[in-house]
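Please fill in the sequence for the structure shown.

STRUCTURE ENCODING:
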Protein backbone atom coordinates (compact mmCIF):
# COMPACT_ATOMS: atom_id res chain seq x y z
CA UNK A 1 0.00 0.00 0.00
CA UNK A 2 1.28 3.46 -0.94
CA UNK A 3 2.10 5.71 1.94
CA UNK A 4 2.15 9.46 1.39
CA UNK A 5 5.80 9.57 2.40
CA UNK A 6 6.70 7.22 -0.40
CA UNK A 7 5.19 9.43 -3.09
CA UNK A 8 7.73 10.97 -5.45
CA UNK A 9 7.10 14.09 -7.51
CA UNK A 10 8.93 15.41 -10.56
CA UNK A 11 8.75 19.17 -11.13
CA UNK A 12 9.49 20.56 -14.60
CA UNK A 13 9.71 24.35 -14.84
CA UNK A 14 12.17 26.63 -16.59
CA UNK A 15 12.02 29.23 -13.80
CA UNK A 16 14.54 28.40 -11.11
CA UNK A 17 12.68 30.38 -8.44
CA UNK A 18 9.49 28.40 -8.91
CA UNK A 19 11.43 25.11 -8.84
CA UNK A 20 13.15 26.15 -5.57
CA UNK A 21 9.96 27.28 -3.84
CA UNK A 22 8.06 24.14 -4.85
CA UNK A 23 10.95 21.86 -3.88
CA UNK A 24 11.17 23.34 -0.37
CA UNK A 25 7.40 23.33 0.14
CA UNK A 26 6.83 19.76 -1.09
CA UNK A 27 9.86 18.24 0.65
CA UNK A 28 8.62 19.88 3.82
CA UNK A 29 5.37 17.94 3.53
CA UNK A 30 7.31 14.71 3.10
CA UNK A 31 7.30 14.06 -0.64
CA UNK A 32 10.44 13.04 -2.53
CA UNK A 33 11.12 15.70 -5.16
CA UNK A 34 13.04 15.69 -8.47
CA UNK A 35 13.67 18.86 -10.52
CA UNK A 36 14.14 19.58 -14.25
CA UNK A 37 14.38 22.80 -16.20
CA UNK A 38 12.74 21.58 -19.40
CA UNK A 39 10.61 18.76 -20.81
CA UNK A 40 13.49 16.77 -22.24
CA UNK A 41 15.48 16.68 -18.98
CA UNK A 42 12.26 15.94 -17.13
CA UNK A 43 11.52 12.90 -19.31
CA UNK A 44 15.05 11.55 -18.76
CA UNK A 45 14.57 11.79 -15.00
CA UNK A 46 11.10 10.30 -15.38
CA UNK A 47 12.46 7.18 -17.08
CA UNK A 48 15.10 6.81 -14.38
CA UNK A 49 13.09 7.54 -11.23
CA UNK A 50 9.54 6.60 -12.23
CA UNK A 51 7.89 9.28 -10.06
CA UNK A 52 4.20 8.88 -9.14
CA UNK A 53 3.32 12.49 -9.99
CA UNK A 54 4.67 14.97 -12.56
CA UNK A 55 4.05 18.71 -12.15
CA UNK A 56 4.94 20.60 -15.29
CA UNK A 57 4.85 24.11 -16.62
CA UNK A 58 3.29 24.27 -20.07
CA UNK A 59 5.64 26.71 -21.76
CA UNK A 60 9.26 25.61 -21.53
CA UNK A 61 12.23 25.65 -23.91
CA UNK A 62 13.52 22.46 -25.70
CA UNK A 63 10.45 20.38 -24.95
CA UNK A 64 7.23 21.92 -23.67
CA UNK A 65 4.83 20.64 -21.03
CA UNK A 66 2.28 19.25 -23.50
CA UNK A 67 4.92 17.09 -25.19
CA UNK A 68 6.20 15.96 -21.77
CA UNK A 69 2.62 15.09 -20.75
CA UNK A 70 2.18 13.00 -23.93
CA UNK A 71 5.45 11.12 -23.49
CA UNK A 72 4.88 10.47 -19.78
CA UNK A 73 1.36 9.16 -20.42
CA UNK A 74 2.65 6.94 -23.22
CA UNK A 75 5.39 5.53 -20.98
CA UNK A 76 3.16 5.00 -17.95
CA UNK A 77 -0.51 5.90 -18.27
CA UNK A 78 -0.97 5.65 -14.50
CA UNK A 79 1.27 8.64 -13.75
CA UNK A 80 -0.70 11.66 -12.54
CA UNK A 81 0.37 14.83 -14.38
CA UNK A 82 -0.51 18.30 -13.04
CA UNK A 83 -0.15 21.25 -15.45
CA UNK A 84 0.93 24.73 -14.40
CA UNK A 85 -0.85 27.17 -16.71
CA UNK A 86 -0.42 30.90 -17.23
CA UNK A 87 -2.98 33.50 -18.25
CA UNK A 88 -4.04 33.10 -21.85
CA UNK A 89 -2.99 29.43 -22.07
CA UNK A 90 -6.58 28.36 -22.84
CA UNK A 91 -5.69 26.54 -26.05
CA UNK A 92 -2.84 24.68 -24.41
CA UNK A 93 -5.03 23.86 -21.42
CA UNK A 94 -7.58 22.22 -23.69
CA UNK A 95 -4.85 20.22 -25.42
CA UNK A 96 -3.59 19.07 -22.00
CA UNK A 97 -7.09 17.95 -21.09
CA UNK A 98 -7.22 15.83 -24.21
CA UNK A 99 -3.99 14.16 -23.10
CA UNK A 100 -5.46 13.25 -19.71
CA UNK A 101 -3.81 15.82 -17.47
CA UNK A 102 -5.01 15.23 -13.90
CA UNK A 103 -5.42 18.89 -12.86
CA UNK A 104 -4.43 22.50 -13.58
CA UNK A 105 -2.72 25.00 -11.33
CA UNK A 106 -2.73 28.60 -12.45
CA UNK A 107 0.24 30.91 -12.15
CA UNK A 108 1.32 32.41 -9.86
CA UNK A 109 1.41 29.08 -8.05
CA UNK A 110 -0.27 29.11 -4.68
CA UNK A 111 1.37 26.37 -2.60
CA UNK A 112 -1.80 25.59 -0.62
CA UNK A 113 -3.80 25.05 -3.80
CA UNK A 114 -0.99 22.94 -5.25
CA UNK A 115 -0.95 20.84 -2.07
CA UNK A 116 -4.66 20.12 -2.41
CA UNK A 117 -4.23 19.17 -6.09
CA UNK A 118 -1.37 16.81 -5.17
CA UNK A 119 -3.45 15.23 -2.40
CA UNK A 120 -6.24 14.57 -4.87
CA UNK A 121 -3.74 12.91 -7.22
CA UNK A 122 -2.32 10.82 -4.34
CA UNK A 123 -5.83 9.67 -3.44
CA UNK A 124 -6.36 8.57 -7.03
CA UNK A 125 -3.06 6.65 -7.00
CA UNK A 126 -3.94 4.94 -3.71
CA UNK A 127 -7.44 4.07 -4.94
CA UNK A 128 -6.01 2.57 -8.13
CA UNK A 129 -3.48 0.56 -6.12
CA UNK A 130 -6.20 -0.72 -3.78
CA UNK A 131 -8.35 -1.71 -6.71
CA UNK A 132 -5.55 -3.70 -8.26
CA UNK A 133 -4.82 -5.39 -4.90
CA UNK A 134 -8.51 -6.29 -4.49
CA UNK A 135 -8.64 -7.60 -8.05
CA UNK A 136 -5.59 -9.75 -7.43
CA UNK A 137 -7.08 -11.09 -4.18
CA UNK A 138 -10.35 -11.79 -5.95
CA UNK A 139 -8.57 -13.66 -8.72
CA UNK A 140 -6.74 -15.74 -6.11
CA UNK A 141 -10.01 -16.50 -4.30
CA UNK A 142 -11.64 -17.59 -7.54
CA UNK A 143 -8.66 -19.82 -8.31
CA UNK A 144 -8.79 -21.37 -4.81
CA UNK A 145 -12.50 -21.96 -5.18
CA UNK A 146 -12.14 -23.75 -8.49
CA UNK A 147 -9.25 -25.83 -7.08
CA UNK A 148 -11.48 -26.78 -4.15
CA UNK A 149 -14.30 -27.71 -6.52
CA UNK A 150 -11.86 -29.86 -8.54
CA UNK A 151 -10.62 -31.51 -5.38
CA UNK A 152 -14.15 -32.21 -4.16
CA UNK A 153 -15.20 -33.70 -7.45
CA UNK A 154 -12.10 -35.92 -7.64
CA UNK A 155 -12.79 -36.91 -4.04
CA UNK A 156 -16.27 -37.95 -5.16
CA UNK A 157 -14.89 -40.04 -8.02
CA UNK A 158 -12.32 -41.51 -5.63
CA UNK A 159 -14.97 -42.63 -3.14
CA UNK A 160 -16.95 -44.13 -6.02
CA UNK A 161 -13.93 -46.04 -7.35
CA UNK A 162 -12.97 -47.29 -3.90
CA UNK A 163 -16.49 -48.46 -3.04
CA UNK A 164 -16.63 -50.28 -6.34
CA UNK A 165 -13.27 -51.92 -5.69
CA UNK A 166 -14.18 -52.90 -2.15
CA UNK A 167 -17.36 -54.50 -3.44
CA UNK A 168 -15.25 -56.57 -5.83
CA UNK A 169 -12.85 -57.47 -3.06
CA UNK A 170 -15.69 -58.62 -0.82
CA UNK A 171 -16.46 -61.31 -3.38
CA UNK A 172 -12.85 -62.49 -3.13
CA UNK A 173 -12.98 -62.42 0.68
CA UNK A 174 -16.27 -64.37 0.72
CA UNK A 175 -14.90 -66.88 -1.78
CA UNK A 176 -11.67 -67.27 0.16
CA UNK A 177 -13.46 -67.78 3.44
CA UNK A 178 -15.84 -70.30 1.90
CA UNK A 179 -12.98 -72.34 0.41
CA UNK A 180 -10.95 -72.22 3.64
CA UNK A 181 -13.99 -73.32 5.74
CA UNK A 182 -14.98 -76.16 3.45
CA UNK A 183 -11.33 -77.24 3.20
CA UNK A 184 -11.15 -77.36 7.01
CA UNK A 185 -14.37 -79.37 7.21
CA UNK A 186 -13.11 -81.91 4.69
CA UNK A 187 -9.58 -81.73 6.06
CA UNK A 188 -8.51 -80.92 2.49
CA UNK A 189 -5.29 -78.88 2.62
CA UNK A 190 -5.33 -77.98 -1.07
CA UNK A 191 -8.72 -76.27 -0.79
CA UNK A 192 -7.60 -74.50 2.39
CA UNK A 193 -4.48 -73.23 0.55
CA UNK A 194 -6.63 -72.06 -2.33
CA UNK A 195 -8.93 -70.19 0.04
CA UNK A 196 -6.04 -68.60 1.90
CA UNK A 197 -4.53 -67.58 -1.44
CA UNK A 198 -7.68 -65.68 -2.34
CA UNK A 199 -7.74 -64.05 1.10
CA UNK A 200 -4.09 -63.06 0.79
CA UNK A 201 -4.69 -61.48 -2.61
CA UNK A 202 -7.64 -59.49 -1.31
CA UNK A 203 -5.68 -58.29 1.74
CA UNK A 204 -2.80 -57.23 -0.53
CA UNK A 205 -5.08 -55.23 -2.74
CA UNK A 206 -6.80 -53.52 0.18
CA UNK A 207 -3.39 -52.63 1.61
CA UNK A 208 -2.27 -51.15 -1.67
CA UNK A 209 -5.49 -49.22 -2.13
CA UNK A 210 -5.24 -47.71 1.34
CA UNK A 211 -1.57 -46.78 0.79
CA UNK A 212 -2.52 -45.04 -2.45
CA UNK A 213 -5.36 -43.12 -0.84
CA UNK A 214 -3.09 -42.10 2.04
CA UNK A 215 -0.43 -40.88 -0.35
CA UNK A 216 -3.03 -39.04 -2.40
CA UNK A 217 -4.43 -37.19 0.56
CA UNK A 218 -1.15 -36.51 2.34
CA UNK A 219 0.17 -32.95 2.50
CA UNK A 220 3.35 -33.56 0.56
CA UNK A 221 6.35 -31.87 2.08
CA UNK A 222 9.43 -33.81 1.07
CA UNK A 223 11.85 -35.14 3.60
CA UNK A 224 14.92 -35.57 1.41
CA UNK A 225 17.92 -37.55 2.61
CA UNK A 226 20.96 -39.14 1.02
CA UNK A 227 19.97 -42.68 0.11
CA UNK A 228 22.52 -45.42 -0.42
CA UNK A 229 21.48 -47.01 -3.74
CA UNK A 230 22.69 -50.49 -2.86
CA UNK A 231 20.58 -50.70 0.31
CA UNK A 232 17.69 -49.05 -1.50
CA UNK A 233 17.80 -51.65 -4.31
CA UNK A 234 17.95 -54.45 -1.71
CA UNK A 235 14.75 -53.13 -0.10
CA UNK A 236 12.98 -52.99 -3.46
CA UNK A 237 14.19 -56.47 -4.34
CA UNK A 238 12.70 -57.87 -1.11
CA UNK A 239 9.31 -56.24 -1.68
CA UNK A 240 9.07 -57.28 -5.33
CA UNK A 241 10.29 -60.84 -4.84
CA UNK A 242 7.59 -61.32 -2.21
CA UNK A 243 5.00 -60.15 -4.73
CA UNK A 244 6.41 -62.46 -7.41
CA UNK A 245 6.14 -65.61 -5.25
CA UNK A 246 4.13 -68.19 -7.17
CA UNK A 247 4.67 -66.56 -10.56
CA UNK A 248 7.21 -67.31 -13.30
CA UNK A 249 8.33 -63.71 -13.51
CA UNK A 250 12.03 -63.04 -13.05
CA UNK A 251 13.16 -59.87 -11.29
CA UNK A 252 16.54 -58.70 -12.53
CA UNK A 253 18.21 -55.95 -10.50
CA UNK A 254 21.48 -54.57 -11.80
CA UNK A 255 24.10 -53.45 -9.32
CA UNK A 256 24.77 -49.79 -9.91
CA UNK A 257 28.40 -48.83 -9.82
CA UNK A 258 27.98 -45.46 -11.43
CA UNK A 259 25.36 -44.19 -9.03
CA UNK A 260 26.05 -44.78 -5.37
CA UNK A 261 23.59 -42.35 -3.84
CA UNK A 262 20.22 -40.76 -4.45
CA UNK A 263 19.00 -37.58 -2.82
CA UNK A 264 15.26 -37.92 -2.35
CA UNK A 265 12.39 -38.58 0.04
CA UNK A 266 12.89 -42.31 0.45
CA UNK A 267 9.33 -43.18 1.45
CA UNK A 268 7.83 -41.28 -1.48
CA UNK A 269 10.35 -42.42 -4.10
CA UNK A 270 9.88 -45.99 -2.91
CA UNK A 271 6.09 -45.63 -3.28
CA UNK A 272 6.51 -44.12 -6.75
CA UNK A 273 8.75 -46.95 -7.95
CA UNK A 274 6.68 -49.73 -6.39
CA UNK A 275 3.61 -48.41 -8.24
CA UNK A 276 5.50 -48.64 -11.54
CA UNK A 277 6.82 -52.10 -10.64
CA UNK A 278 3.32 -53.26 -9.64
CA UNK A 279 2.14 -52.29 -13.11
CA UNK A 280 5.04 -54.19 -14.65
CA UNK A 281 3.95 -57.30 -12.71
CA UNK A 282 0.33 -56.82 -13.82
CA UNK A 283 1.52 -56.38 -17.43
CA UNK A 284 3.51 -59.66 -17.30
CA UNK A 285 0.58 -61.52 -15.76
CA UNK A 286 -1.78 -60.12 -18.39
CA UNK A 287 0.45 -61.25 -21.25
CA UNK A 288 -0.48 -64.75 -22.40
CA UNK A 289 1.70 -64.85 -25.49
CA UNK A 290 5.23 -65.10 -24.12
CA UNK A 291 6.44 -67.95 -21.99
CA UNK A 292 9.12 -66.22 -20.01
CA UNK A 293 8.57 -62.90 -18.34
CA UNK A 294 11.04 -60.65 -16.67
CA UNK A 295 11.20 -57.27 -15.03
CA UNK A 296 14.43 -55.27 -15.08
CA UNK A 297 15.46 -52.62 -12.57
CA UNK A 298 18.52 -50.43 -12.75
CA UNK A 299 19.76 -47.09 -11.40
CA UNK A 300 22.20 -45.20 -13.63
CA UNK A 301 23.86 -41.85 -13.80
CA UNK A 302 23.88 -39.81 -16.97
CA UNK A 303 25.46 -36.38 -16.77
CA UNK A 304 23.71 -34.51 -13.97
CA UNK A 305 20.80 -36.91 -13.76
CA UNK A 306 20.05 -40.11 -11.91
CA UNK A 307 18.04 -42.38 -14.16
CA UNK A 308 15.99 -45.25 -12.79
CA UNK A 309 15.06 -47.73 -15.52
CA UNK A 310 12.19 -50.20 -15.13
CA UNK A 311 11.63 -52.62 -17.96
CA UNK A 312 9.07 -55.39 -18.45
CA UNK A 313 8.28 -57.73 -21.32
CA UNK A 314 4.58 -57.88 -20.45
CA UNK A 315 1.53 -56.95 -22.49
CA UNK A 316 2.73 -53.43 -23.40
CA UNK A 317 0.26 -50.75 -24.39
CA UNK A 318 -0.88 -48.86 -27.46
CA UNK A 319 -0.19 -45.15 -27.93
CA UNK A 320 -3.74 -44.13 -26.98
CA UNK A 321 -3.39 -45.86 -23.60
CA UNK A 322 0.10 -44.43 -23.15
CA UNK A 323 -1.25 -40.90 -23.44
CA UNK A 324 -3.64 -41.40 -20.52
CA UNK A 325 -1.61 -43.43 -18.04
CA UNK A 326 -0.74 -40.48 -15.76
CA UNK A 327 -4.35 -39.29 -15.50
CA UNK A 328 -5.96 -39.69 -12.10
CA UNK A 329 -8.37 -42.69 -12.16
CA UNK A 330 -7.27 -43.90 -15.59
CA UNK A 331 -7.05 -47.67 -15.52
CA UNK A 332 -7.43 -50.36 -18.17
CA UNK A 333 -7.79 -53.08 -15.53
CA UNK A 334 -11.55 -52.76 -14.81
CA UNK A 335 -12.24 -53.75 -11.20
CA UNK A 336 -8.61 -54.70 -10.54
CA UNK A 337 -7.28 -51.18 -11.07
CA UNK A 338 -7.80 -47.87 -9.32
CA UNK A 339 -5.93 -45.56 -11.71
CA UNK A 340 -4.14 -44.04 -8.71
CA UNK A 341 -0.71 -45.55 -9.16
CA UNK A 342 0.93 -43.61 -11.96
CA UNK A 343 -0.84 -40.37 -11.06
CA UNK A 344 0.84 -40.60 -7.64
CA UNK A 345 4.21 -41.72 -9.05
CA UNK A 346 4.19 -38.83 -11.50
CA UNK A 347 3.36 -36.20 -8.89
CA UNK A 348 6.05 -37.54 -6.55
CA UNK A 349 8.71 -37.45 -9.29
CA UNK A 350 7.62 -33.98 -10.40
CA UNK A 351 7.83 -32.76 -6.82
CA UNK A 352 11.43 -33.94 -6.80
CA UNK A 353 12.05 -31.82 -9.91
CA UNK A 354 12.28 -34.93 -12.08
CA UNK A 355 10.34 -36.44 -14.94
CA UNK A 356 9.15 -39.80 -16.28
CA UNK A 357 9.63 -41.07 -19.83
CA UNK A 358 7.66 -44.05 -21.11
CA UNK A 359 8.22 -46.22 -24.17
CA UNK A 360 6.06 -49.19 -24.93
CA UNK A 361 5.30 -51.60 -27.75
CA UNK A 362 1.96 -53.34 -27.49
CA UNK A 363 2.34 -57.07 -27.03
CA UNK A 364 6.09 -56.74 -26.51
CA UNK A 365 7.45 -54.55 -23.73
CA UNK A 366 7.34 -51.38 -21.67
CA UNK A 367 10.19 -49.17 -20.48
CA UNK A 368 9.87 -46.52 -17.79
CA UNK A 369 12.72 -44.08 -17.27
CA UNK A 370 12.59 -41.90 -14.17
CA UNK A 371 14.91 -38.89 -14.26
CA UNK A 372 15.91 -37.33 -10.95
CA UNK A 373 18.08 -34.24 -10.79
CA UNK A 374 21.33 -34.50 -8.86
CA UNK A 375 20.90 -32.41 -5.74
CA UNK A 376 24.08 -33.15 -3.86
N1 LIG B 1 4.16 -51.64 -17.54
C1 LIG B 1 2.96 -51.43 -18.11
N2 LIG B 1 2.55 -52.20 -19.16
C2 LIG B 1 1.35 -51.99 -19.72
N3 LIG B 1 0.46 -51.05 -19.33
C3 LIG B 1 0.79 -50.25 -18.30
C4 LIG B 1 2.06 -50.40 -17.63
N4 LIG B 1 2.12 -49.48 -16.67
C5 LIG B 1 0.95 -48.80 -16.71
N5 LIG B 1 0.14 -49.26 -17.67
C6 LIG B 1 -1.19 -48.73 -18.01
O1 LIG B 1 -1.43 -47.56 -17.24
C7 LIG B 1 -2.67 -47.66 -16.54
C8 LIG B 1 -2.64 -46.82 -15.29
O2 LIG B 1 -1.79 -47.35 -14.30
P1 LIG B 1 -2.02 -46.98 -12.79
O3 LIG B 1 -2.14 -45.53 -12.68
O4 LIG B 1 -0.97 -47.66 -11.98
O5 LIG B 1 -3.45 -47.59 -12.48
P2 LIG B 1 -3.88 -49.11 -12.26
O6 LIG B 1 -2.66 -49.93 -12.11
O7 LIG B 1 -4.73 -49.08 -11.03
O8 LIG B 1 -4.67 -49.47 -13.50
C9 LIG B 1 -2.85 -49.13 -16.34
O9 LIG B 1 -4.22 -49.46 -16.13
C10 LIG B 1 -2.31 -49.69 -17.66
O10 LIG B 1 -3.29 -49.57 -18.68
MG1 LIG C 1 -1.03 -49.48 -10.95
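FILLED IN BY: designer on duty
SEQUENCE:
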Amino acid sequence: MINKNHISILIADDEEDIRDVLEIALEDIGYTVFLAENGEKAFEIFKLEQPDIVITDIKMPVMDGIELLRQVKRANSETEVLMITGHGDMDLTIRSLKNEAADFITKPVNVDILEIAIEKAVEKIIARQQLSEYTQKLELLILEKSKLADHLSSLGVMIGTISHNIKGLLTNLDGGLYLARSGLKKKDNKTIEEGLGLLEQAVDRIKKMIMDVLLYSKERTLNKTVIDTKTFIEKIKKIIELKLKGTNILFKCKESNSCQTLYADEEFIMAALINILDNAIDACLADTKKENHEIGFEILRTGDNRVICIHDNGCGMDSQTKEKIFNLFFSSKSTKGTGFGLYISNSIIKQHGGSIQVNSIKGKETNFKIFLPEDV
